[in-house]
Structures are given as C-alpha cells and as structure tokens.
Amino acid sequence: MIFCxxxxxxxxxxxxxxxxxxxxxETATSAGDLPVEGVIVDGGVVCPLLQTREGLQIALQGVxxxxxxxxxxxxxxxxxxxxxMCMQGARTLLVNRIxxxxxxx
Length: 105
Fold this sequence. Notes:
- The protein is of the alpha+beta class.
- It has a single domain (5-102), classed as CATH 2.40.50.
- It has one helix and five strands.
- The chain starts with a helix and ends with a strand.
C-alpha cells in the first residue's frame, strides 16, 4: 500500500471528531444525555444525518427522516449507542429530546 498523506489526514480528522463528540459527554445532563448540534445533511437512508461543526456526521435514531429537511439547524439531546438500525454516520445518537430546530429558508 502506498502512503497517502491526504487519507491519513482524513482518517485522523474523523477519529478526532468522534473523540470531540464523546468528550462532550462531560457536559451531559444529569440523565446522562449528550447535547449535540449541527445541520441536517442529505444521505440518511433510515435515520437523518446531523453534521457537526467539526464535520462529523451522526445518525439520529428516534427522529423521523422526513421531519427535518436538509439544511435545518438542529440541537438535540441523547446518548451515543453502539447498536443501531441506522446505516450511515460515524456514530449514532439515540435522541431523547429536540432542544431547538431552525428550518432552512
């Protein structure tokens, strides 16, 4: 295999983005929920995809895929799960509450 700096950079960026989301658990509510915010992007087959500022795509389990169109700014609370019915995203968040939604214009 040939060394490719771009691939290495992408892999490291994705790994650090996952760590950043998991590190946000320190700010979780007393129920253990993790607040996550970002924008809904196209691509979710079963669950909607939320892209964070860091570029991490998180599948949102428990939210109807057609409820929020692409471009909607969303802030949710939930917990990261290992097993999920969602097929895309680096991680899956089981959403317990939707805190804020700003629809795209």
